[in-house]
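Re-running the complex after MR caught last week's input typo. The corrected sequence lines follow. Everything else is unchanged.
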Amino acid sequence: MPATHEVTNQVPPLVGHDLAADPALLEGMHREDAGWAESELHELGTLAGSEQAQEWGRLAHAHPPVLRTHDRFGNRIDEVEFDPAWHQLMEVAVSHGIHATPWRADRPGAHVARAAKMYVWGQVEPGHTCPISMTYAAIPALRHNPELAATFEPLLTAPVYDYGLRVPTTKRGLIAGMSMTEKQGGSDVRANTTRAVPADDGTYLITGHKWFTSAPMSDMFLTLAKAPGGLSCFLVPRVLPDGTRNRLFLQRLKDKLGNRSNASAELEYEGAVGWLVGDEGRGVRTIIEMVNLTRLDCVLGSAAGMHHGVLQATHHATHRRAFGTPLIEAPLMTNVLADLAIEAEAATTVAIRLAGATDRAIRGDAAEETFRRLALAVTKYWVCKRGPAHAAEALECLGGNGYIEESGMPRLYREAPLMSIWEGSGNVAALDALRAMARQPESVEAFFAELDHSAGADHRLDDAVARLRKELGDLSAIELRARRIVEIMALVLQGSLLVRYGPAAVADAFCASRLAGDWGVAFGTLPPGTDTSAILERVHVP
Ligand SMILES: Cc1cc2nc3c(=O)[nH]c(=O)nc-3n(C[C@H](O)[C@H](O)[C@H](O)COP(=O)(O)OP(=O)(O)OC[C@H]3O[C@@H](n4cnc5c(N)ncnc54)[C@H](O)[C@@H]3O)c2cc1C
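Corrected-run output:
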């Protein structure tokens, strides 16, 4: 080998660490009643940081799913073939209950513990968390039909990944998907044209197209279709109780920017059998319960992506030298890393606060339900919106190596915009926050009640809250201003949580930059005097 190929100054791979060693996550879990799950979380975090798990993540992306419409004899089969690594990832997620534990083993903090696991395990490979999230989220919607829930809930929540298309009741565990979006409208689902015609036996026959239905090998889908009484929600199994395939035909798999391990299909319903869930005409009301939980997972996914990006960037900067010094000692690099770390900590802190609100709301806490209604829309908009910019900057910290597939950073970067697109794209999330405020004024009170906990603790935060009150008092051009308003709301909520619970250095830099405007447009523009070392102490590079 020529001497020019001696490898120096390259960074060792980041393996063998515990992805749960994340102070913002752990402290949040303890605050939100889920401290009891910490040892399980470290076990999962250690698996997530292992070489084996990282290899599963790589393989699942290197070998994306393949659609098999027909068997070799020409019979339609409509199946999707996955790399074995996909199944390994699913197996871990299901056996650790990320798809369902809180519905099965309920105790205070159960949804927070599950959220923390989602955050940790999702960092290995986010694509497979889509069906995991949908299965978790399907349960509250399914409960609108107690009979169906009695049959399928025990299987949807079983900690067994039992892959393959068979009669659902003969399987040991089930996975659920969600089928709403059509060609003419995804945000505007009321434009759905899929029809559901009542049959004599109490079922409905569903005909129409669905333009995006992810995880098409799921055992069943919650589907929106127009029944005589209006847009309604149905449970549609892939295999019928008599063992025949339901009339669901996979037309194509999407060729996606990211999320490539996961299959997303164009799905044709041709008289597919469905069971009504909830009342006719109440389809959006029913499925929104599912969407609220998947929205929380979008926030968790974005926060997890940011944490992962900071971890990789800081690890790289710790080991890489340029111009004679480790990058981590270069003042401008510390500014970039600290700025990324603040963004990630703010995202994680608010995500876990919302997981706590979800947990308490499900347990009947009306005040937390009201708070969650608005705070989730606000946070879905902002945290998911920050993901792509954050991933791009974290990637750049690795220089050219960050642009190379093997580093894993391109995967992180390509995944990031998706969190903001699905389950309510940016504008739709921002408008949803306005809708919540208009229809449920008590949600505004609950939001400000949360902010009151930090009143007087930091004048920059107090000033920003006062600005927000002024913005909300002006209803002119309100729709046009939705992003501006929701952005301030998200920032004051994050600021309030950081001032109360975060380390002083993080809270101080957050308030200076995000709330008082002592900041640039790009990351790495924190003001002089910022305690970057204290901020970076929160990033546990092994
Ligand atoms: C990888 C992937 C997987 C998916 N999986 C699923 C799935 O499993 N099941 C499913 O049902 N769907 C799925 N979707 C669809 C996804 O939920 C929709 O793409 C999303 O809801 C947006 O709908 P749309 O694509 O029709 O865009 P549109 O609704 O046409 O929106 C286009 C843009 O207009 C904005 N907009 C919309 N209304 C307004 C308004 N009133 N004012 C201002 N701006 C507005 C939106 O924010 C967006 O930026 C998936 C999408 C992707 C990319």
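None of the earlier attempt is carried over here. The two ends are 32 Å apart (CA to CA). The first strand starts at residue 66 and ends at 70.
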